[in-house]
């Protein structure tokens, strides 16, 4: 297994775990954790109400599910696509990462949660570093 394949699988696992935590935050007993994350995302512009609104649990589950899906895709790219074509795995991951990042970050800015862009950068960097073309080409020439 190449370094790229391992890195893509690890980044996929991190995304799956994070998505699962988002989805679990929909449960009442985890609302204090969700509240803290929302306060961070909305910093410094808005205060987040202590009680999550009715659709918030559904949105947390959807967000968590989508993050799990992104992680599953990243893991699958590292497991099944990168061994066949490191370049195809890299390009697919880059397109998915940049599409998600731009849409999520623009939406975050528009709803008054600009710090979420900073939080999104951690996932973007995680994905992009795991599939850097330099890693793939280094192994292709070995």
Brief description of this entry?
The protein has 142 residues and is mainly α. The protein has helices at 3-24, 31-42, 55-81, 86-110, 115-130, 133-140. 77% of the residues lie in helices and 0% in strands.
Q: Which terms summarize this structure?
A:
elongated; 6 helices; disordered C terminus; mainly alpha
Molecular structure report:
The protein is built from six helices and no strands. It is an all-alpha fold. The two termini are 13 Å apart. Helix content is 77%, strand content 0%.
User: Are there runs of 5+ residues with pLDDT below 50, and where?
Assistant: 136-142
Residues in helices, as a percent range: over 70%
Measured distance between first and last alpha carbons? 13 Å
User: What is the tally of helical segments?
Assistant: 6
> Averaging pLDDT over every residue, what do you get?
83
Taken in chain order, the helices and strands follow as HHHHHH
- Overall body shape: elongated
Q: What's the total number of strands?
A: 0
Provide the structure class. Answer: mainly alpha
Topology, please?
Elements: H1 3-24, H2 31-42, H3 55-81, H4 86-110, H5 115-130, H6 133-140
Helix pairs in contact: 1-3, 1-5, 3-4, 4-5
